[in-house]
Amino acid sequence: MHTDLSPVIAATAQWLTRSFPTPGGALASALCEAQARQAVTVAARLRYPTAMDAALVGLAGPGGSARLDWVTGADSGQDTAAQAWRTWVDEVVASWAACLLADPALASAAVTALTGNASAEFRRLLTPDASDRHAAALLRHPDLLAPVAALHHSALLARLDPDSTLVP
Fold first, then answer.
1. Superkingdom of the source (predicted)?
2. How confident is the model at residue 73 (pLDDT cuts 50, 70, 90)?
C-alpha cells in the first residue's frame, strides 16, 4: 500500500463505520472497522494504483464526504474542526468499498486483481466468520449499502475488466 493513501483509507473507513455502525460492543466495533479498512484499502489501491496517483490525490485532496452524507441522509450540517477528517473521505473509494462489502464475488475479483490470489491479508473481507458477519451486519447489508455502492459501481466493474483501458 502506498503510505500516501493512509489519510484517505483512514477517513473513508471511519466514514463507513460511522454511517453503518456495529450493533455490538468494543470487539464488534474492532471487527467492523477491520472489515471496512480492508475493503477501503482494496478500493483505494484499485482507484490509485501508482505512486503518482497517490501523490496527486494527496496534493489535490479526495473531495470529502458531502455527497455521501447527503445520499445516506447523514448530512448533519456541522462544519466544525472536529469533522475535518471528512475532507479526506474519497467518494469513489467509499462507493467501491461498499460494492466489495456487499458482494463477496466482486470482493474476491478485486483482491485477485490486486494480488493475483485470494490474499490472507484481506481474510475478513473475503471470508468473514460468524463474528465478523454479526459485527458488520449493517456494513455488509446490500440494501443499506445500495445508494452508496450505486454511485460508482460501473466504474469499479470497468476497472476490474481486464480488456478495458484506463478508466477515468
1. Bacteria
2. confident
Domain edges within the chain:
3-160
User: Who's near 117: CB < 8 A, 6+ residues apart?
Assistant: none
End-to-end CA distance of the chain: 21
As given in the structure block, the three cell numbers for residue 60 are 489535490
* Three-class secondary structure of residue 50 per DSSP: coil
The number of beta carbons lying within 10 Å of the beta carbon of residue 152 is 21
Q: Is residue 14 a contact partner of residue 85, using CB atoms and an 8 Å limit?
A: yes
Q: Are 57 and 91 in contact (CB under 8 A)?
A: no
Q: For residues 126 and 158, what is the distance between their CA atoms, to the nearest angstrom?
A: 21
No. of helices (H) and no. of strands (E), the chain: 9, 0
For 82-139, the pLDDT digits (tens) are 688 999 999 999 999 999 999 999 999 999 999 888 778 999 999 999 999 999 999 9
How much is the pTM? 0.91
Whose grid coordinates read 450505486? 150
DSSP state at residue 6? H
Q: How many whole angstroms separate alpha carbon 3 and alpha carbon 157?
A: 25
